[in-house]
Fold this sequence. Notes:
By secondary structure, this protein is mostly beta strands. Helices cover 10% and strands 41% of the residues.
Amino acid sequence: MEEEISVWRPPKKLPLSPEPDRDDQRDPWCWESDTVAPRTWLSAAPEMLLLLLLLPLLWEGSLSQRLYVQPSVSVQEGLCARVPCTFYYPSPFNSNPVYGYWFSERNNVYHGTPVATNDPFRMVEGTAQGRFHLLGDPRMNNCSLSITDAQFSDRGRYFFRVENGHEKYTWKPLYVTVKGLIQKPDISVPEVLESGKSVTLKCTFPSDCGGNRAFKFSWRGAALSSQPGTSGTSHSSEVSFIPGHQHHGTSLTCQVTLPGGRLSPERTIQLNVSYAVQNVTITISQDNRTTVWVPRESSPLVVQEGGSLHLLCAAHSNPPATLSWMLGDQTLASSQPSHDGILPLDLPHLRPADEGNYTCHAQHPLGSKQVSLRFSVHYPPKMLNLSCSWFKGVLLCTCSVQAEPAPSLHWQVGGKLVEGNSSSNTFQVISSRSGPWANSSLSVKMDRVPNIDISCEGKNLQGTHTLLFQLVPDRSTLSHAFQKGIITGVLCGAGVSSLLALCLLLLLVKMLRKKSLGAEASSRRAEDPKRPAQEGQSLHPISSAADAASTPAAPEDAPDELHYACLSFQGKKAREDHGSTDPLTEYSEIKFH
């Protein structure tokens, strides 16, 4: 500080005021500076030498100045801070330039280098070069400070000084705090990202640096094609792309590289893309095995009778589709869209009646799909229709069997296998199939009913069911010819016996009549002696033609009789335990009368 010393004139009152105590109640945004106005000394005396030595220390303080600035400011590493600042000086500045200086506490305000100034003749501190700026015009009482690309070494206290010719003032410090970078860019995403439709996203980076700093933006993500990074003076960047269903849940990142290239904050989001049902899958759990059903590719699904299935339908869509299990027109189960696109179906204790097309429907506003599966329930053969009849020397037997898979039928006559759909002079077999049914008929030509076994066997992979017919003639009767002879002999004997009995009866009657007539005549002669007696009167017996009884003729040979087979099933009832594959044989005895 420069000053002019002349002859000392004692002042009326020493214009010195001590620095205010820091605990005084003052405006926290206002700092006071006490200064002493320059004095012109006309003369000097030895006793005033001590005062002359104190003058540099008391130079500032006669006029109270005020500085309006926040006491502290906090900034993140690499970012910017603006510190509004004004000061008040009661008298106008003179014509000399008005320079403002911001000094770090590490430098002396008198001889050190400032971090920011508008004085073109003063050098600034090297680490602050280009990063600290005095924004305001000190002549307009503006001392605003700008800090860009903040670094941890910038932390500390800072003083402001103003100089206008010989007028020089310094204010108490501003404290600057630098923290780690936590600021990230922001990505604006539309509420709906629909598959197949173009969308534009915007990335912005909030900053207090104004529009004079260039940021470099870059995008990356599976939904983007080769997108070059963009840079410029703005703090935002936009990118357009067409999302697909495969991009749902993938990451999209916007990265900002700050000036200097030291820091590159970024933000990553997960894309939520709406899309229609892409595929519907059915997972099958059976006997501790899990498989995925693929229509037209998976092998046919087979379940043993009494077994169970666990089906799981899953639909790939966003948002999740509404699922339902259908059997024909019947709804077996349904879900809500909030169930993550999964719907189970349990089918326990399956029977043949449970077979059918099981369809999973997936309904979605953007597009629906469905998939179906069909399974078959396998069970061993069941004999359902059995009959035998005998007519005119031909034995006819029919056999019907139901099973899944469809069974094969075989006949055996007397232990000898009769091939299916065969014909000979003695045997004829006709067989047919329809779905799970197998039907067969056996014709056997026989002059008489033999004592023979005939069996019908139904067989598939699940088991075998055999019905054995045992033909047994009725042993309580004789043969047909012997029976006819006996009948003829009995009839002839009965006729002769009847004729002899009739003759004896007629003779007895005649003798009784003669005896009765003789007694009557004697009685009349005794009563009327005058009446002449009738001699030689006799009773005429019944004419032989009239009395003779015709002998019935022996019956002629009757026409051929119809012989019916009475089928009596004396065996046990067919077993219902179809889980066993052991052969099942039923015995029936047929008696022909």
